[in-house]
Hints:
The complex is a heterodimer of chains A (210) and B (249).
Chain A: H1 3-20, H2 23-30, E1 37-41, E2 46-53, E3 56-60, E4 69-73, H3 75-81, H4 88-93, E5 97-101, H5 103-114, H6 120-128, H7 130-165, H8 172-209
Parallel strand pairs in A: 1-4
Antiparallel strand pairs in A: 1-2, 2-3, 4-5
Helix pairs in contact in A: 6-7
Chain B: E1 6-9, E2 12-15, H1 16-30, H2 34-42, H3 46-57, E3 64-68, H4 74-83, E4 88-93, H5 96-108, E5 115-119, E6 132-138, H6 147-157, E7 158-169, H7 175-197, H8 200-212, H9 216-226, E8 229-236, E9 241-247
Parallel strand pairs in B: 3-4, 3-6, 4-5, 6-7
Antiparallel strand pairs in B: 1-2, 7-9, 8-9
Helix pairs in contact in B: 1-8, 3-4, 6-9, 7-8
Amino acid sequence: xxxxELAFAGLEEALNQYVTLDPKAAAALAKLHGRAIAxxxxxxxxxxxxxxxxxxxQVLRLYEGEPECVLRGSPMALARLSTANEKAVDxxxxxxxxxxxxxxxxxxxxxxxxxxxxxxEEHLAAHVGDFVAHDIVDGARFIAERGRRTVxxxxxxxxxxxxxxxKLLPERPEVQDFVAKIDTLRDDFDRLQARIDRLRNQTAxxxxxx
Amino acid sequence: xxxxxxxxxxxETVNATExxxxxxxxxxxxxxxxxxxxxxxxxxxxxxWKRYAIELAGVRKGQKVLDLAAGTGDLSARxxxxxxxxxxxxxxxxxxxxxxxxxxxxxxxxxxxxVRYVQADAQYLPFPDNHFDCVTIAFGLRNVTDKQLALNSMxxxxxxxxxxxxxxxxxxxxxxxxxxxxxxxxxxxxxxxxFVANDEESYRYLAESIRMHPDQETLKGMMxxxxxxxxxxxxxxxxxxxxxxxxxx
Lengths: 210, 249
């Protein structure tokens, strides 16, 4: 048994933690029961298979059937897919993630991953009861909101100084542009590699003739 | 099973007719704490072993799977997810208490609709010939009285092209690990069993039955004898456990 086996098991547990905390996502995944989706991570070239079902999203290293849909993207693009602050559909159709096979299945699955929404109050209630959970979450929300405002205000001032005045760090659009350029460079490199391989194959017979 | 119709119950030699009853007593006793028992016996690694077996089983949408000695349903639950609503998983155990534990767990996990429950003896499977795409037995074969008879029966119910997966404790092939493993199994495990389940004897049987189970090569030979082709085994955790796989063509 290899380390990747352990990593795949860990990834499955982590994903299912999110799914169990979000009944809407769990119900949506149950509707895709038994359908196999391959996720290909470009760069490290990792392929994993995700099979949704009632109660569990299985993550497998090996799957002997043909996946109905393949989602392929750079680690960065796939990571953004599973965060709720960007619309998953935008990711899917902007070319950062390619879908082959059943595109409707890919779109639905991408939306579920993108919309995983954790209801902390419900989760807490299982341990301490509804009323206490409500109070805790309300209190936490109040503290978080006050804290967020303070942090936002201080953060904005600091960010403005570092990015605009001192030019020590890039701004968000600059980082996004940089990440996109890296993705483009990777694609260019892959194409160049393929072209070199093709040329090498074309010249190979003439070498043999010598 | 030996020539004079005797067999092993742990390190004891008992009459073949006695074994099933004694095994039933053990599992009646541990059924409610079966998952804890598996975690104790394997330090939780049984989940990874089962994952590995699932991947080797190669089960996919629409297939029919027979999960023997299904216990509390770790494999069945995964198969029910993989075969989809049009596939079928038969959750089977010889022990009524285990079957009931498993049924409750599956229902609680929302796994209904494509799962059937059958109390069956692996030696005399009550299914038609050439019926299943995959048959599995995880941590169950060592408790069967006549293992060859059970393997023959599994072969019969498999479709041509189908495969058998046997996940079972096996013979450790690393000497340093063997010493530690023996100490844990025979000295510590029964004590933990007494502490957790107040049942030292059942846990002692479980450790002894592992040692009396055929080693990797012997079991592979038994599968060949039953008619399986391309039989092979995969040692996990230094041979503490092995997955045997064979095909019916």
